[in-house]
Write a structure and sequence with these properties.
With 307 residues, this protein is an alpha/beta fold. The protein has a single domain, classed as NAD(P)-binding Rossmann-like Domain (Rossmann fold). The chain has 9 helices and 12 strands. A 4-stranded parallel β-sheet has the order 3-4-5-10, sandwiched between helices. A two-stranded parallel ribbon has the order 1-2. The protein has a two-stranded parallel sheet with strand order 6-9. Strand 4, helix 3 and strand 5 form a beta-alpha-beta unit. Helix 2 packs parallel to helix 3 and helix 4 packs parallel to helix 6. Bound molecules: uridine-5'-diphosphate (UDP). Uridine-5'-diphosphate (UDP) binds next to helix 4 and strand 7.
Length: 307
Protein backbone atom coordinates (compact mmCIF):
# COMPACT_ATOMS: atom_id res chain seq x y z
CA UNK A 1 0.00 0.00 0.00
CA UNK A 2 2.93 2.33 0.70
CA UNK A 3 3.92 1.78 -2.96
CA UNK A 4 0.44 2.86 -4.09
CA UNK A 5 -1.16 -0.53 -4.73
CA UNK A 6 -4.73 -1.46 -3.94
CA UNK A 7 -4.41 -4.53 -1.72
CA UNK A 8 -6.84 -7.40 -1.19
CA UNK A 9 -5.96 -9.76 1.65
CA UNK A 10 -7.53 -13.20 1.93
CA UNK A 11 -7.32 -15.57 4.90
CA UNK A 12 -9.47 -18.23 6.53
CA UNK A 13 -7.94 -17.17 9.88
CA UNK A 14 -7.16 -20.74 10.89
CA UNK A 15 -3.80 -19.56 12.19
CA UNK A 16 -4.03 -15.84 11.36
CA UNK A 17 -5.49 -13.09 13.53
CA UNK A 18 -7.59 -10.12 12.44
CA UNK A 19 -5.88 -8.02 15.14
CA UNK A 20 -2.79 -8.00 12.94
CA UNK A 21 -4.56 -6.09 10.16
CA UNK A 22 -7.11 -4.10 12.16
CA UNK A 23 -5.11 -0.92 11.62
CA UNK A 24 -5.59 -1.29 7.85
CA UNK A 25 -9.38 -1.44 7.85
CA UNK A 26 -9.71 2.33 7.68
CA UNK A 27 -7.55 2.48 4.54
CA UNK A 28 -9.35 3.10 1.29
CA UNK A 29 -6.99 0.83 -0.64
CA UNK A 30 -7.34 -2.23 1.53
CA UNK A 31 -9.92 -5.00 1.45
CA UNK A 32 -10.17 -8.22 3.39
CA UNK A 33 -11.90 -11.41 2.19
CA UNK A 34 -12.54 -14.09 4.79
CA UNK A 35 -12.00 -17.10 2.54
CA UNK A 36 -10.21 -20.45 2.43
CA UNK A 37 -8.10 -20.64 -0.74
CA UNK A 38 -8.45 -24.42 -0.88
CA UNK A 39 -11.99 -23.60 -2.12
CA UNK A 40 -12.51 -21.97 -5.53
CA UNK A 41 -11.23 -18.39 -5.39
CA UNK A 42 -12.93 -15.58 -7.20
CA UNK A 43 -11.98 -11.90 -7.17
CA UNK A 44 -13.74 -9.32 -9.33
CA UNK A 45 -11.80 -6.99 -11.62
CA UNK A 46 -8.18 -6.79 -12.60
CA UNK A 47 -5.28 -8.26 -10.62
CA UNK A 48 -1.62 -7.47 -11.30
CA UNK A 49 0.09 -9.57 -8.65
CA UNK A 50 -0.87 -12.49 -6.45
CA UNK A 51 1.26 -13.36 -3.41
CA UNK A 52 0.41 -16.78 -2.01
CA UNK A 53 1.50 -17.08 1.62
CA UNK A 54 -1.46 -19.13 2.86
CA UNK A 55 -0.26 -22.03 5.01
CA UNK A 56 0.25 -23.02 8.59
CA UNK A 57 3.98 -22.49 9.17
CA UNK A 58 4.72 -23.90 12.60
CA UNK A 59 5.59 -27.55 13.35
CA UNK A 60 2.86 -27.61 16.03
CA UNK A 61 0.28 -26.53 13.46
CA UNK A 62 1.29 -29.26 10.98
CA UNK A 63 0.68 -31.79 13.76
CA UNK A 64 -2.66 -30.32 14.74
CA UNK A 65 -4.00 -29.60 11.25
CA UNK A 66 -2.07 -31.89 8.88
CA UNK A 67 -4.78 -32.29 6.21
CA UNK A 68 -5.39 -28.53 5.91
CA UNK A 69 -1.61 -28.04 5.63
CA UNK A 70 -1.46 -30.45 2.70
CA UNK A 71 -4.57 -28.99 1.09
CA UNK A 72 -3.50 -25.36 1.19
CA UNK A 73 -0.11 -26.13 -0.35
CA UNK A 74 -1.62 -28.34 -3.03
CA UNK A 75 -5.26 -27.37 -3.77
CA UNK A 76 -4.83 -23.78 -2.59
CA UNK A 77 -1.84 -23.29 -4.87
CA UNK A 78 -3.70 -24.87 -7.78
CA UNK A 79 -6.62 -22.47 -7.29
CA UNK A 80 -4.38 -19.42 -7.11
CA UNK A 81 -2.38 -20.45 -10.17
CA UNK A 82 -5.71 -20.80 -11.97
CA UNK A 83 -6.70 -17.31 -10.78
CA UNK A 84 -3.36 -15.89 -11.95
CA UNK A 85 -3.82 -17.48 -15.37
CA UNK A 86 -7.36 -16.12 -15.67
CA UNK A 87 -6.29 -12.59 -14.62
CA UNK A 88 -2.95 -12.69 -16.50
CA UNK A 89 -1.35 -11.78 -13.18
CA UNK A 90 2.15 -12.50 -11.96
CA UNK A 91 2.15 -14.88 -9.00
CA UNK A 92 4.69 -15.26 -6.21
CA UNK A 93 4.61 -18.45 -4.20
CA UNK A 94 5.96 -18.65 -0.64
CA UNK A 95 8.05 -21.79 -0.37
CA UNK A 96 10.32 -22.65 2.52
CA UNK A 97 13.66 -23.90 3.73
CA UNK A 98 11.71 -27.03 4.71
CA UNK A 99 11.97 -28.20 1.08
CA UNK A 100 15.60 -28.99 2.07
CA UNK A 101 14.37 -31.18 4.98
CA UNK A 102 17.15 -32.14 7.41
CA UNK A 103 19.83 -30.92 5.03
CA UNK A 104 22.98 -32.82 4.17
CA UNK A 105 24.42 -29.76 2.39
CA UNK A 106 25.41 -26.70 4.41
CA UNK A 107 24.69 -23.84 3.92
CA UNK A 108 21.71 -24.63 1.69
CA UNK A 109 21.92 -23.45 -1.90
CA UNK A 110 18.92 -23.39 -4.23
CA UNK A 111 20.46 -26.26 -6.23
CA UNK A 112 20.28 -28.68 -3.27
CA UNK A 113 17.39 -31.16 -3.74
CA UNK A 114 16.86 -31.79 -0.03
CA UNK A 115 16.51 -34.64 2.45
CA UNK A 116 12.84 -34.91 3.39
CA UNK A 117 11.03 -37.68 5.28
CA UNK A 118 7.78 -37.88 3.28
CA UNK A 119 5.86 -39.69 6.04
CA UNK A 120 7.28 -37.90 9.11
CA UNK A 121 5.39 -35.25 11.12
CA UNK A 122 6.81 -32.45 8.98
CA UNK A 123 6.13 -34.36 5.74
CA UNK A 124 2.69 -32.76 5.35
CA UNK A 125 4.25 -29.31 5.15
CA UNK A 126 7.46 -30.21 3.36
CA UNK A 127 5.80 -32.27 0.64
CA UNK A 128 2.97 -29.76 0.16
CA UNK A 129 5.60 -27.06 -0.39
CA UNK A 130 7.61 -29.27 -2.75
CA UNK A 131 4.44 -30.03 -4.75
CA UNK A 132 3.68 -26.31 -4.71
CA UNK A 133 7.02 -25.54 -6.36
CA UNK A 134 6.44 -28.28 -8.96
CA UNK A 135 2.96 -27.16 -9.96
CA UNK A 136 4.14 -23.54 -10.08
CA UNK A 137 6.95 -24.43 -12.49
CA UNK A 138 4.47 -26.53 -14.53
CA UNK A 139 2.15 -23.51 -14.91
CA UNK A 140 5.19 -21.44 -15.80
CA UNK A 141 6.40 -23.84 -18.47
CA UNK A 142 3.10 -25.17 -19.78
CA UNK A 143 0.92 -22.03 -19.60
CA UNK A 144 3.64 -19.39 -19.81
CA UNK A 145 2.49 -17.94 -16.45
CA UNK A 146 4.79 -15.36 -14.81
CA UNK A 147 5.83 -17.04 -11.56
CA UNK A 148 8.25 -16.33 -8.70
CA UNK A 149 9.25 -18.71 -5.91
CA UNK A 150 10.74 -17.52 -2.63
CA UNK A 151 12.19 -20.05 -0.18
CA UNK A 152 11.67 -18.38 3.19
CA UNK A 153 14.01 -19.31 6.05
CA UNK A 154 13.09 -18.79 9.74
CA UNK A 155 11.63 -15.29 10.03
CA UNK A 156 10.46 -13.38 13.10
CA UNK A 157 9.19 -10.04 14.28
CA UNK A 158 6.33 -8.18 15.97
CA UNK A 159 2.85 -9.75 15.57
CA UNK A 160 4.16 -13.32 15.61
CA UNK A 161 1.61 -15.64 17.12
CA UNK A 162 2.30 -16.23 20.78
CA UNK A 163 0.85 -19.72 20.86
CA UNK A 164 2.30 -21.33 17.76
CA UNK A 165 5.06 -23.25 19.53
CA UNK A 166 7.90 -21.81 17.45
CA UNK A 167 11.07 -21.07 19.27
CA UNK A 168 10.97 -17.27 19.39
CA UNK A 169 7.43 -16.78 20.71
CA UNK A 170 7.97 -19.79 22.98
CA UNK A 171 11.12 -18.36 24.60
CA UNK A 172 9.73 -14.82 24.84
CA UNK A 173 6.46 -16.02 26.34
CA UNK A 174 8.34 -18.17 28.84
CA UNK A 175 10.63 -15.29 29.82
CA UNK A 176 7.67 -12.95 30.33
CA UNK A 177 5.73 -15.49 32.40
CA UNK A 178 8.78 -16.26 34.51
CA UNK A 179 9.00 -19.87 33.32
CA UNK A 180 12.08 -21.88 32.39
CA UNK A 181 13.11 -21.81 28.73
CA UNK A 182 12.50 -25.16 27.01
CA UNK A 183 15.39 -26.17 24.76
CA UNK A 184 14.66 -29.25 22.67
CA UNK A 185 17.39 -31.88 22.42
CA UNK A 186 20.80 -30.67 23.59
CA UNK A 187 20.28 -27.37 21.77
CA UNK A 188 23.14 -27.98 19.34
CA UNK A 189 20.77 -27.74 16.35
CA UNK A 190 21.14 -24.43 14.53
CA UNK A 191 18.83 -21.90 12.91
CA UNK A 192 19.38 -18.55 11.18
CA UNK A 193 16.75 -15.93 12.01
CA UNK A 194 15.68 -13.16 9.61
CA UNK A 195 13.86 -10.02 10.76
CA UNK A 196 10.50 -9.56 9.05
CA UNK A 197 11.30 -6.15 7.47
CA UNK A 198 14.31 -7.69 5.69
CA UNK A 199 12.20 -10.65 4.58
CA UNK A 200 9.49 -8.38 3.14
CA UNK A 201 12.05 -6.28 1.24
CA UNK A 202 13.62 -9.44 -0.27
CA UNK A 203 10.25 -10.82 -1.33
CA UNK A 204 9.17 -7.51 -2.85
CA UNK A 205 12.37 -7.29 -4.88
CA UNK A 206 11.91 -10.86 -6.09
CA UNK A 207 8.31 -10.14 -7.11
CA UNK A 208 9.47 -7.24 -9.29
CA UNK A 209 12.50 -9.07 -10.71
CA UNK A 210 12.59 -11.23 -13.84
CA UNK A 211 13.95 -14.31 -12.10
CA UNK A 212 11.70 -17.39 -12.23
CA UNK A 213 13.61 -20.07 -10.33
CA UNK A 214 13.50 -20.38 -6.51
CA UNK A 215 15.46 -17.85 -4.43
CA UNK A 216 16.43 -18.26 -0.76
CA UNK A 217 15.52 -15.28 1.41
CA UNK A 218 16.82 -15.45 4.97
CA UNK A 219 19.54 -14.20 7.27
CA UNK A 220 22.71 -16.33 7.08
CA UNK A 221 23.78 -15.46 10.62
CA UNK A 222 23.55 -18.93 12.23
CA UNK A 223 23.22 -19.73 15.94
CA UNK A 224 22.65 -22.88 18.01
CA UNK A 225 19.35 -23.03 19.87
CA UNK A 226 21.17 -23.32 23.20
CA UNK A 227 23.19 -20.15 22.57
CA UNK A 228 20.01 -18.51 21.37
CA UNK A 229 18.23 -19.36 24.65
CA UNK A 230 21.13 -17.75 26.52
CA UNK A 231 20.82 -14.62 24.34
CA UNK A 232 17.10 -14.38 25.10
CA UNK A 233 17.76 -14.58 28.84
CA UNK A 234 20.23 -11.71 28.53
CA UNK A 235 17.95 -9.67 26.30
CA UNK A 236 14.89 -10.05 28.50
CA UNK A 237 16.86 -9.32 31.64
CA UNK A 238 15.20 -12.25 33.38
CA UNK A 239 16.99 -14.95 35.33
CA UNK A 240 15.22 -17.94 33.83
CA UNK A 241 16.86 -21.32 33.75
CA UNK A 242 17.13 -23.52 30.70
CA UNK A 243 15.46 -26.94 30.80
CA UNK A 244 15.98 -29.63 28.20
CA UNK A 245 13.09 -31.48 26.51
CA UNK A 246 13.18 -34.28 23.93
CA UNK A 247 14.10 -33.29 20.39
CA UNK A 248 11.02 -33.52 18.12
CA UNK A 249 11.20 -36.08 15.33
CA UNK A 250 12.89 -34.91 12.11
CA UNK A 251 13.89 -31.56 13.65
CA UNK A 252 16.56 -30.32 11.20
CA UNK A 253 20.01 -30.28 12.83
CA UNK A 254 21.33 -27.29 10.94
CA UNK A 255 19.91 -24.56 8.78
CA UNK A 256 21.55 -21.61 7.09
CA UNK A 257 20.60 -20.01 3.79
CA UNK A 258 23.15 -19.46 1.06
CA UNK A 259 21.95 -16.06 -0.20
CA UNK A 260 24.41 -15.61 -3.07
CA UNK A 261 21.54 -15.60 -5.59
CA UNK A 262 19.50 -13.02 -3.69
CA UNK A 263 22.58 -10.79 -3.45
CA UNK A 264 23.47 -11.10 -7.12
CA UNK A 265 20.02 -11.08 -8.69
CA UNK A 266 18.08 -8.83 -6.32
CA UNK A 267 20.89 -6.77 -4.80
CA UNK A 268 19.42 -7.79 -1.45
CA UNK A 269 20.88 -8.80 1.86
CA UNK A 270 19.51 -8.53 5.40
CA UNK A 271 20.25 -5.32 7.30
CA UNK A 272 18.73 -5.90 10.74
CA UNK A 273 20.96 -7.75 13.21
CA UNK A 274 19.58 -10.23 15.70
CA UNK A 275 20.02 -7.93 18.67
CA UNK A 276 18.00 -5.10 17.14
CA UNK A 277 15.38 -7.45 15.67
CA UNK A 278 14.91 -9.39 18.89
CA UNK A 279 14.59 -6.19 20.89
CA UNK A 280 11.78 -4.95 18.61
CA UNK A 281 10.11 -8.34 18.82
CA UNK A 282 10.40 -8.47 22.59
CA UNK A 283 8.87 -4.97 22.82
CA UNK A 284 5.87 -6.36 20.98
CA UNK A 285 5.50 -9.40 23.25
CA UNK A 286 5.88 -7.14 26.28
CA UNK A 287 2.95 -5.04 25.07
CA UNK A 288 0.58 -8.05 25.24
CA UNK A 289 -1.77 -8.29 28.19
CA UNK A 290 -1.07 -10.61 31.08
CA UNK A 291 -4.32 -12.35 30.17
CA UNK A 292 -3.00 -13.10 26.66
CA UNK A 293 0.29 -14.40 28.03
CA UNK A 294 -1.48 -16.67 30.50
CA UNK A 295 -3.90 -18.35 28.13
CA UNK A 296 -3.47 -22.05 28.67
CA UNK A 297 -3.29 -22.82 24.95
CA UNK A 298 -0.11 -20.73 24.82
CA UNK A 299 1.65 -22.99 27.22
CA UNK A 300 0.84 -26.44 25.98
CA UNK A 301 3.63 -26.92 23.54
CA UNK A 302 6.70 -27.76 25.54
CA UNK A 303 6.52 -31.40 24.47
CA UNK A 304 5.92 -31.60 20.77
CA UNK A 305 6.42 -35.33 20.60
CA UNK A 306 3.05 -35.66 22.28
CA UNK A 307 1.21 -34.67 19.10
N1 LIG B 1 12.77 -25.25 19.89
C1 LIG B 1 13.19 -25.32 21.22
N2 LIG B 1 12.29 -24.97 22.20
C2 LIG B 1 11.03 -24.55 21.95
C3 LIG B 1 10.60 -24.46 20.59
C4 LIG B 1 11.51 -24.82 19.60
O1 LIG B 1 14.33 -25.72 21.51
O2 LIG B 1 10.29 -24.26 22.91
C5 LIG B 1 13.74 -25.61 18.83
C6 LIG B 1 13.20 -26.61 17.81
O3 LIG B 1 13.40 -27.94 18.25
C7 LIG B 1 14.01 -26.26 16.59
C8 LIG B 1 14.26 -24.76 16.72
O4 LIG B 1 14.01 -24.45 18.08
O5 LIG B 1 15.26 -26.93 16.62
C9 LIG B 1 13.39 -23.91 15.83
O6 LIG B 1 12.07 -24.33 16.00
P1 LIG B 1 10.84 -23.60 15.31
O7 LIG B 1 9.62 -24.35 15.67
O8 LIG B 1 10.87 -22.16 15.62
O9 LIG B 1 11.05 -23.71 13.74
P2 LIG B 1 11.68 -24.82 12.75
O10 LIG B 1 12.87 -24.14 12.25
O11 LIG B 1 12.01 -26.08 13.51
O12 LIG B 1 10.63 -25.04 11.72
Amino acid sequence: MAEGYHVIAMDNLITGDLKNIEHLFKEEHFEFYHHDVTKFVTVPGKLDYILHFASPASPIDYLKIPIQTLKVGALGTHNLLGLAKEKKARILIASTSEVYGDPLVHPQTEEYYGNVNTIGPRGVYDEAKRFQESITMAYNRFHGLETRIVRIFNTYGPRMRLNDGRVIPAFMGQALRGEDLTVFGDGSQTRSFCFVDDQVEGIYRLLLSDYELPVNIGNPHEISILEFAEEIIKLTGTDQKIVFKPLPKDDPMQRQPDITKAKEILGWEPKVGREEGMRKTFDYFKSLSREDLDKKEHRDFSDRNRY
